[in-house]
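Hey, sorry to bother you again with one of my protein questions. I've been staring at a protein lately and its backbone has me curious. I owe you a coffee for this, so here goes:
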Amino acid sequence: MNRRSFITQTSAGLALMALPGRALFAADGKPVDSGFHFGAVYFRGQNNPPREDWERDHRVAAEDGHTLFRHWVSWNVVEVAPGKFEWADYERMLDLAAKNGIRVVLAEMIVDYPEWFIGAHPEARIEMASGAKRQSEMHGSSMNGGHRALCLNHAPVREAAERFLTAMASHFRGHRALLGYDIWNECTEYTAESLCFCGACQQAFRDWMRAMHSDIAAVAKRWHRPSLTAFDQIELPRAPGLFPDFLDSIRWRNDDAQDWMRWRREVFAKADPQAIIIAHGNARTHADASVCVGDDFRAAENCDVFGYTHYFGQGHPPLLSGDLIRSAAQGKPFWRAEAIGGPQWFRRKPGEPKPSMDELDDPAAIRLDALISMAIGATAYMNPRWRSLLDGPLFSAFGWYADDGSRTAKSEEIKRLAQWSKQSDVLALWKMKPARGDVALVLVDEAQDWCYAMQGDTNVYAACVRGMHRGLTAAGLSCDFAKPDAAQLREHPVAYVPFPVAMSAATMDTLITWAKAGGHLVLEACAGYFDEEAHAFPHQPNRALGELFGPIVKHSSFALDQHDGLTIQTPSGDLPCAIYRQSFNPQASHEILGHFADGSAAIIRANAGKGSITLIGSNPSYAMQKQLTPGSPAWLRSSLQIQASPPCSNAECIVRSFHGESSRAIWLINPTKQEIAVSIAVSAEPKVLRGKLMDYNAKTNTARVTIPSYDAVILRLPA
């Protein structure tokens, strides 16, 4: 039986099922509460609530509707000497959880290496791009040393880490509170400065290149290094550059990261065959995949339940994070693994206000944040702090409960949400599945890699992705993120590709094949101008796209500093654009959908089999990230040839639909600080599961509601 579709833990009397909808838990083979779940990180090995509060805190958590706790299991804290493991506090955590009906996820933290082991293996220290070796640094959240000091590509490190993970799973296997293991916290290395260039990594890269290209002569040609004669002459590039060797290093690092994630999964599965394998990403695939291996799509493949962190420092709204992780999970259960329950105090200076850091100190903002997580299909909403830390730079930050564990207005808001989520009529919501997005927003790895290599960061690529998500949301359209994968695109009628400047032949062929089968494909400027090796073709467009359109590009400008005020004239009005400018000499069979100010064709469309392909001569997505003009949403609806489903009268309202066996639901979320009125088309008089129905017009099948600030109205309708 496929472990990803049904996993049972009979010895503990628990089970997790990845069934349609959002039901997660069962006990003794019988379904129990299939509602939405709330929880938090409680225990970190160090930096914990006072021991005398543990029993009270668990009791309060259960009383307030919390059903999940996640505990960090730091190698540095547990294996205090070779083979000497301190498990007593963790045993106490699981026993208290079982007593109070709370399920526990144990999060491995092998990146926090024991000091005695670091001292024994100086050769395994991480080597930064500068050549400097990493020291035994402190972890700011768990207050233990050894953080990110060593490199797993050294055999002694891997062997010792495997012994620790095996001991962890063997010790807690079968505990009645255990739900599973979180095998990678946030699935990223966070920054390029965290990457390793040690001898073991150099050798791993050489081995990868040898496996990908068995002939060193082929590598010499690919890399434009004709004097390469042996694989042991290969070195990891230490700085971004628009060259094939650096682009190959990005791909190796992502493969290497996923190999280590699979290794973690296999170690836990061997030690605890009934284990539920869990992980959570950082919801920054569109910014971090090229820089620091933060690819949530690839990480989600290696676990049974996926999740995500979203906080103010990620630079985009929680709706984007949720849509991205739901898409990366590809139908698996997923949850909000880390929300934020308050401000932080470090990295703040007098005279430099950072209001975004304080937004989630407001209970109403926490309510909105939780409702957005629910509305994108998450199964749980968890905080990285049940109560705040007392040591380190993150002291007194993020917690729902006060520093002493007492209840607060924030914890009361979560309690009210938990109580509402468990109402008998509301439980039907958690058995429903999110509706397919109106549009597939396609992420092209080669384009992000090219941006990083060319610019030294992924800011432009990420801004284009964020801008298009913002524009689609303002147009009343929902989106699913997708890689250029036939299975991910299959059910979508429309696909939009922001910043597609580099594409492999395989990526281009997949997208065009999908369009020819009946899809409507929209490509921004300079689509596939480069291949995956950063080679530019003399005729544009090129390869399969050139065969379809012909050599119709009149002029291309990559002077991204010159085009901020660029506009394209369209039937929907002026469309602000930026970054690149590419004009066309269309053929008679092409439909012209927009012009630049000089009259040259800026948007053209061609038929492709049963579908069509649209080329845009600039990047409206980037302009939408900077400023969303009223005309941009109208242009999107017109250009994509799609209407919001269901249509909503208020552009400020976030609309999401769910489908169940016998009913469906429409979520209407108000993300503004004012009450808003909304009219929405429905198929019948709805039942209200949250909020109040102001009016229903049977003749027009229209429901009218008023949504309070930072809240939602939820309507249930027949399937």
Remarks:
- The radius of gyration is 26 Å.
- The first strand starts at residue 6 and ends at 9.
